[in-house]
Backbone:
């Protein structure tokens, strides 16, 4: 069991994910075959290795890597200039469309049912 866990850790360190998956599955089978109270430390090591394997390509792992990289860059350098906010541009309402001038139009009142049309 210890050998399977160490193989899994080596494969995770080398980023050989298929070998790590196989070693973790072998270690899990061995851990399930033993009683619960036996090999407690190996079970903890196996859980830690599983956690490292699960975080290989997740967004959480990428954020941790990016945070470490930006912390190293900012150690002695200048602070970046603040970015301009585009929230104000998005919040402003668009201008209403101009009202079209329809000019002088005659309305046919009889067609609308208002009586006779008296045009002179």
Residues:
């Amino acid at each position: 069991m210890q050998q399977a866990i160490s193989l899994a850790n080596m494969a995770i360190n080398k980023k050989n994910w298929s070998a790590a998956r196989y070693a973790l599955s072998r270690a899990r089978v061995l851990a399930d075959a033993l009683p619960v109270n036996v090999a407690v430390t190996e079970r903890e090591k196996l859980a830690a290795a599983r956690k490292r394997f699960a975080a290989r390509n997740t967004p959480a792992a990428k954020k941790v890597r990016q945070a470490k990289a930006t912390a190293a860059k900012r150690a002695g350098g200048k602070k970046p200039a603040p970015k301009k906010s585009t929230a104000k541009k998005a919040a402003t309402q668009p201008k209403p469309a101009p009202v079209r001038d329809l000019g002088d139009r005659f309305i046919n009142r009889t067609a609308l049912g208002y009586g006779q049309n008296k045009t002179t």
Remarks:
- The longest helix spans residues 17-33.
- The chain has a mean pLDDT of 77.
- DSSP finds six helices and no strands in the chain.
- The two ends are 108 Å apart (CA to CA).
